[in-house]
Amino acid sequence: MDDSGLMDFPAHGPLFTWWNHQQRTPIAEKLDRILGNFYWFEQFSNAIATYEEPLFFDHASCCIIFQERGPKPIRPFRFNHHLMQHEQFLLLVQDSWSSMEVSGSQMLQINKKLKLLKGKLRELIRSAFSGIENRVRVALADLRAAQRVLLTSPTPELAEAKRKTYLHL
Are residues 118 and 142 in the same domain? Predict the structure, then answer.
């Protein structure tokens, strides 16, 4: 391969791409490869190669994914009203706003303060609301379990536990 100028494309996925399907003496090898030369790698430096599990076949499938080039787009900041309900929101805004020393016209000062505050609010969103879908899924599972137990043998203690679980949603 060295003489031809071809190189293995770095890839994600299983180390081996083939196995013999023998339970007693399994053998796995990397038979399938994605190759390219220097010019190809230079032209498509943003490409990613993956090997998928073979599932029903002897060999793993290979795939090259071409990612779009260009800078990451800047997303506008979206203020979500539920953020105002967070217990730290007002304190964070007050502390951030009063601690910022900016100069210039009043409009420029407001603009700069809002830009600096945006970073603090993003941190609060990340720390308080990241993984919300998973937390809701877990809370619903807890509620279902509490309801199931309550419907099996109702007691005042179980009813209170179910109510607390419901309030936790």
Answer: no
- Two tokens, residue 120: 């603090």
What distance in Å separates the CA atoms of residue 8 and residue 34, rounded to the nearest whole number?
Answer: 6
Tell me the C-alpha distance between 98 and 113, whole Å.
9
Same domain membership, residue 111 and residue 138? no
Same domain, residue pair 43 and 92: no
Cα–Cα distance, 136 to 143 (Å, whole number): 10
| Whether residue 102 sits in one domain with residue 58 | no
The range of the structural domain enclosing residue 161 comes to: 132-168
For residue 17, count CB atoms less than 10 angstroms from its CB and return exposed for 0-12, middle for 13-18, buried for 19 or more: buried
Residues 138, 125 share a domain = no
d(CA 140, CA 128): 19
Residue 34 lies in a domain: yes
Per-residue pLDDT of the chain in tens (169 residues, 90 and over written 9)? 667 888 888 888 888 888 887 878 888 888 888 888 888 888 888 888 888 877 667 788 888 988 776 666 777 777 788 888 889 999 999 988 888 787 778 888 888 888 888 888 988 988 888 888 888 888 888 888 877 776 677 778 877 877 787 776 6
